[in-house]
């Protein structure tokens, strides 16, 4: 589960803890689960994934922006489905640290995060 150097640099204040990586029963796909930690006002800039993502907010308040859709604000205990290849961003808009549990069903062997141009 790789992040490019550019993706790692662009996500200042955002860290991830990889929890699970397992081949899927769907040929060519893998399941990845990670905890993503957002510092105060941290931004995960516009990016996409080579598959679907389910973002579940564990702590704090995050605002998600999927291109072509209005922003969505989620609080702890709420979740959001992000379609495969959808360009999106996430920002911590709470007063402290925020966390999400990100679950992906993605194409095996492709970078997990691709920064948008």
Automatic annotation (TrEMBL):
Gene3D superfamilies: Jelly Rolls (2.60.120.10). Residues 41-96 form the Cupin type-2 domain. Transmembrane segments: none annotated. This is Cupin domain-containing protein.
